From TrEMBL:
This is Glycoside hydrolase family 88 protein. Coiled coil: none annotated. SUPFAM superfamilies: Six-hairpin glycosidases. The lineage of its organism: Bacteria, Bacillati, Bacillota, Clostridia, Eubacteriales. GO terms for molecular function: hydrolase activity. Keywords: Hydrolase. The keyword Magnesium does not apply.
Length: 398
């Protein structure tokens, strides 16, 4: 009887600790948050955390539940691999951008380790592709891979995307969602498609990306304020979900700015995409808060600030500032955003208070914690904007 009681108590203790320990760790990690005074030290902390996470990426929760999480862990509902792809992609993009301005052997070692663990010797994916979330990871690898060692995997990614082309000649988010087009997809696939199309001379890949952006801009935006809804219905042209979901703006922002950057200067779509960049820039500048951040709902000042929105929009603005007509205001807004991110960085270099994973169209997380995706895009913004980083003799080019 005593042994049974002890076993029961041990099980109860395990369940309780599985909930309490993560909460305690988060609380402790926030002690003395945002106390960086030296920008160079802060940037190095961001880099160090990104290096650590690339091959040990924290599992991002699918659920908002903080009680009895052991049940969801057992059922496999705690986290999903598809979520991890865009976390890893952002870290790889950030670290690769940093390498362009400062040589760091530790980063190279970790990136090569990451590539070996994800790709076969022939350059194909080790794990069979299921979702288009992988396209942003392919894009990140393409940015590092200058000799096309992983060309087979890029072809695999492109084939997966083509399988999801719907009746309107744009790409579905999932096979089961035939009639909906998500703003997330702009960030997931468009930069990859354009880089893939330009590098390997596949004009149809470029056309697919341009159609995806133009159709979303036409049907998925609030026409007056020029900000996106979460999704739209291709048959009835209903605009779905929240208008002004912060990370939705971020997904569109990184998708359109990297697509614009990847297009050659003489490409027939370059100017058209640039016009979207300019118009969208003016919209998000109006929505920036006085402290430099954006909320998880950008149209309401009362909502919680989201670091993932702030990091992605800061990154967008660093490159939008290349356009002379909006140069000054974009640079100023980006500097303010980066200062905000510095103010919410933990002692160990983790940027805090990013919104958790979205559950469905119109169903958003109310948890705000660490997110590797934020870490990566903050680093990308910092690399382009920071004077401390750009003291390097190595020239940084777009």
């Amino acid at each position: 009887m005593i042994y049974i009681t002890m076993i029961i108590l041990l099980i109860v203790l395990t369940i309780v600790l599985s909930d309490i320990v993560p909460l305690l760790k988060t609380w402790v990690s926030r002690v003395h948050i945002g106390r960086y005074e030296n920008e160079e030290i802060w940037i190095q902390a961001i880099v160090n955390k990104s290096i650590k996470w690339l091959n040990n990426t924290p599992k991002i929760k699918v659920t908002d539940n903080t009680r009895l999480t052991i049940i969801e862990r057992i059922k496999g509902n705690y986290s999903k691999n598809a979520i991890q792809h865009w976390q890893q992609a952002a870290l790889l993009l950030g670290l690769n951008d940093y390498l362009k301005v400062k040589s760091d052997n530790n980063i190279k070692i970790e990136i090569n380790k990451f590539l070996k663990s994800n790709f076969n010797k022939d350059g194909s994916w080790k794990e069979k592709l299921k979702f288009i979330d992988c396209a942003i990871l392919s894009y990140a690898v393409m940015n590092y891979d200058k000799v096309d060692k992983y060309k087979v995997s890029y072809d695999e990614t492109y084939s997966l995307i083509r399988e999801l082309i719907g009746s309107d000649e744009t790409v579905k988010y999932r096979k089961s969602m035939e009639d909906y087009r998500y703003v997330d997809t702009i960030g997931f696939i468009c930069p990859f498609l354009i880089k893939y199309g330009v590098r390997f001379n596949y004009e149809e890949a470029i056309e697919l990306a341009i159609n995806q952006i133009k159709d979303y801009y036409k049907y998925g935006f609030d026409n007056e304020n020029i900000i996106p809804f979460h999704a739209y219905d291709i048959k009835n042209k209903y605009k779905l979900g929240l208008c002004g979901w912060g990370r939705g703006l971020g997904w569109f922002a990184i998708g359109v700015i990297d697509s614009w950057r990847e297009l050659p200067e003489n490409n027939k779509y370059k100017k058209e995409i640039e016009e979207i960049v300019v118009t969208f820039s003016k919209s998000i500048l109006k929505l920036q808060l006085n402290n430099g951040a954006w909320g998880w709902t950008v149209t309401r000042k009362e909502t919680r600030i989201d670091s993932s929105t702030t990091a992605t929009l800061a990154y967008f603005l660093t490159y939008a500032s290349i356009i002379k007509d909006i140069e000054k205001e974009c640079k100023l807004a980006c500097d303010k955003a980066i200062k905000y991110l510095m103010s919410v960085t933990r002692r160990d270099g983790t940027i805090d208070f990013s919104q958790g994973d979205t559950k469905d169209i119109g169903v958003y997380s109310m948890l705000f914690d660490k997110l590797p995706f934020t870490q990566g895009f903050a680093l990308r913004a910092i690399v382009k904007a920071s004077k401390e980083v750009n003291k390097s003799e190595i020239e940084y080019s777009i």
